[in-house]
Amino acid sequence: MRGSAPEDEKRIHRPALRRSATAVAAAVLLLPLAGAPSASAGQPRTDDLQRAFTDAAARFHVPRSVLLGVSYLESRWDGHGGAPSVSGGYGPMHLTDARTALARAPEFSEGHEDARGDGARARKRVPADAAERAALPAELPARLRTLDTAARLTGLPAEKLRTDPAANVLGGAALLAAEQRELGLAADADPAKWYAAVARYGGQDSARGGKAFADEVFAVMRQGQARTTDAGQRVTLAATPTPAPDTAQQKRLGGPATRAAAPGAGRALECPWNVACESVPAPYEEFDGNDYGNHDLADRPKDQKVNAIIIHDTEGSWDVTLKLIKDPKYVSWHYTIRSSDGLIAQHVPTKDVAWHAGNWYINSHSIGIEHEGFLAAPDAWYTEAMYRTSARLVKYLSRKYDVPLDRQHILGHDNVPGTTTPTIPGMHTDPGPFWDWAHYFSLLGKPFHRTAGSHGGLVTILPDYDENKPLYTSCEKAGDTCAPHGSTAVRLYSAPDENAPLVKDVGLHPNGSDSTDGVNDTGARATTGQRFAVAGRSGDWTAIWYLGQMAWFHNPHDEPTAVNAKGLIATPKAGREEIPVYGRAYPEKEAYPAGVPYQTVSPLPYKLTAGQAYAVGGRMTGEFFYAPTFDVSKHAIVRGADVYYEVQLGHRVGFVRAADVDVRQSDS
Known about the structure:
Blueprint: H1 21-29, H2 48-60, H3 64-75, E1 89-90, E2 95-96, H4 130-133, H5 146-154, H6 158-163, H7 165-182, H8 195-202, H9 207-223, E3 225-228, E4 234-237, H10 247-253, E5 277-279, E6 285-287, E7 291-293, E8 295-296, E9 308-313, H11 318-324, E10 335-337, E11 344-346, E12 353-354, H12 360-364, E13 366-371, H13 384-401, E14 410-412, H14 437-443, E15 458-461, E16 489-491, E17 525-527, E18 531-538, E19 541-546, E20 549-554, E21 562-565, E22 568-572, E23 578-580, E24 607-609, E25 614-626, E26 636-647, E27 654-657, E28 661-665
Parallel strand pairs: 5-11, 9-13, 9-14, 10-13
Antiparallel strand pairs: 1-2, 3-4, 6-7, 8-12, 10-11, 15-18, 15-21, 16-17, 18-19, 19-20, 22-25, 22-28, 23-24, 25-26, 26-27
């Protein structure tokens, strides 16, 4: 790769030294940090961070490719302005100091959403003391406080390690060197000899997680990477074809991280072979006489098709989340993914129905994946390790259940519709506008791109994540402005003018008020990968059909926030002035057998009028999973004759009856 840094083997080989932390700190403090500007410095150089990696590698005798590879998997070399990750990690090396980042309430412990969303049963409420019972111990695990160790090893102040990228890289190099010494290994110039230290760095309390992390780091080293960071630094890791991990060290760490479950393996893990995966089962138990939890037994896909995967974030730490999932009185989801190393915990077999999306129809046909993170903390970034592991899991599930890899089937929790009008304001909004859908779909092998010319009839929302920083409020405190951060969402206006009011969402704001710039207000928001029918164009502005109205977003030719596309669209049938839209695709009344209560197919408050068009995401027949009791012999699947189409209604999807619409190609 052109412009790459010198190869590791070209560095001067020095004998390994065992030095005390005090001696190391003294040596470090005698040398200036590579990132510190000189007195004559003008504009910051774009290679300062690259030089910081070279300097730190030389000082602690860590192969530079190892240091770059670890950092890429933690942060993609971004510094995030000194803000912490979702698991309390700082800077390019993700040095952890997690206490302040873990003081939030878990996702299902607050708000008004019923995670089960089944109108045939009483509203599911989580225990009032769920968050308190899952409180973290006073002493955090070592993986969440590595910054203190880095400060001790380098003698640098903790604040400098948090905020100065060069210092942070130095701290990461010190930690890797310390891990190598703890393992009794020499500071070898061969990257392969650092496999176990890399595993310890990524997964301190999980051999499986650490091994998967190290495997991914070595894969990055083989492939090479180059990118410009969030601070404008150009960093390159030259592809190295040969860095195979040391086999003796691999054996020392144990066998493969996990293996995909064989067909018919019951409660065996359902994960791809190349990730770390463990079982933390969710209970299926009766309590309080006639209640039970925290999921429903099923036999998917034999009894119901799985056609969606729902992306959540936990709004709490890994440790809290794993405690809550074990409570039969709580709710459930199928998997949780840890931020620091991408470790996966499976809780509910994918054949069974978890209570996670707030919509029983969606729950019955989906798999829920929680990611350690916080939607309303834009500074709290997601690690590359978690993005990559999640993408591998979703690809595995996509193959297993034939779920298309597109934004009509890979949904955020914030894309799930309310079941009825009263439920809309309480629907959850994670993972929110800071989840990088474009990067995620690149990892899935399905990057978003233009699929049509200007007459294709659809657009795919695709802003530049790093450059797109719309103002949001109420992240930490109501009304306060959120810290600027890259976003996957574009804002929608009632006219082609940024001074115009935002479009209305009559379901989210039933009093008729305008949508707001609140981070949890999805009423005027279109997100990366979503496809909408074009309603008009005016200069640098594009209009789409959205919640029954024309919605405008800024889409300049030289800095586009969407690309042209084509596909199926649904329009009201000829002669129909307006048609209803629904939050679930339930059967008609005549389909229900005796003993199964009819579930009213009530429309949402939005009306799709003549001349409007909406992108089609799928076709399905009305279906209802009746699961009122712990005793599965009383469960039933009701299948009707009514056919529905899923459409991109607004920020959330919706369903329309096939009898109400004409479906055609958008460019016809």
